[in-house]
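Session log. Operator J.P. requested a structure for one protein chain; no other inputs attached. Running the standard single-chain path with C-alpha cell output.
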Amino acid sequence: MSNQTVGFVGLGIMGLPMAKNLVDGGYDVVGYNRSPEPTQELVDYGGSDGGSPAGVADAADVVLLCLPDSPDVENVVLGEGEESDPVVEALSEGMVVIDHSTISPTVAERVAERVADVGATMLDAPISGGESGAIEGTLSIMVGGDEETLEANRDILETMGETVTHCGPSGAGQTTKACNQIVVAAQMVGVSEALVFADNAGADLEAVVEAISGGAAGCWTLDNRAPNMIHGGFDPGFFAEYQYKDLRIATDAGEAFGSPMPQTSLAHELYKTMVENGMGRDDNSGVMQVLEMMSGSEARVDD
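Structure written below.
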C-alpha cells in the first residue's frame, strides 16, 4: 500500500480505467470528471470524489490529467476558460502534475512554465495503447520534462503502463505522441485501403488478414482491429474525433517546424470526413468506412 495520494482529473474512456488501476495498485485515488457518472464509478471502485480540479489537487500529492485537447488542459490547470476552480490554485511547492492528455507541444511547454511559477513541476506524458491498454495497464507512456521528477514518480506510471520512456524536456512527450499518431493513422488508412481493395477484387477478407499479418505488412492494426473491421465492428477503443484532433496537432507542428507531411495530411482529411459525416465517436479504425463510401460498397464478412 502506497502512502501517496494520487489525484486524477478526466475520467473518460482512458482516464477511468487508468484511475482504477491506481486503486488496484494500492494508491489512494481522488478523482474529478466534468460529468458526474465516471466520478461515481471511481468512488464505487474505492476512490474518492475531489469535487473540482482544485479539490483534487488540494487532496493529492501528485495530480494526473487525461483530457481531450489543449484548451481543456489550459482550462483545468490554469483556469483559462470556464473553470473557476483550476488545479493551479491548490498547487504548492514540490507538487507534481503529470498530463496524460495529447495536446500541442507548445501548449505543454507554456502550461509547465505556469505550473513552475508556483513551485510545482509538470510532466507531459501522453499515452498510447487505446482503451484495452488503459484497462490492462499496458499503455506506452511518453514523458517530457525533468527526468528526476519522472524517476521519482515512475512507480505511479508503471502501475498504468508497460513502457515508460523519457523523451526529453517539456514538450518532448507531446512531440513523440504526434509521431505515434502519424504512424497509427498510416496503419489505419493503409489497412482500410487494402481491405476495401481486397473486397472489390473478390478476395476472402479473413484469408487476406491472416496471410498479410504474418509477413512484412504485419502491424498492430492488423492484429487488433482488422478482425473487427471486416465485420463492421467500430465500437470505440479510441475515438476517431480524437485521432482527427491528434493529426491536426501533428500537421500544425509540421507547419511550424517546416517538416513535410504528405501522408499525414491525407489521413487528416480522411478523419475530418469521418467527423463531418457523424462518425467521430466510432473507433479510429472506422476510417475504413470513408474508403467504403468512396468505393460505393462495404468490405464485410458475413457473420
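Operator note: Residues 176-295 form a domain with the N-(1-d-carboxylethyl)-l-norvaline Dehydrogenase; domain 2 fold (CATH 1.10.1040.10).
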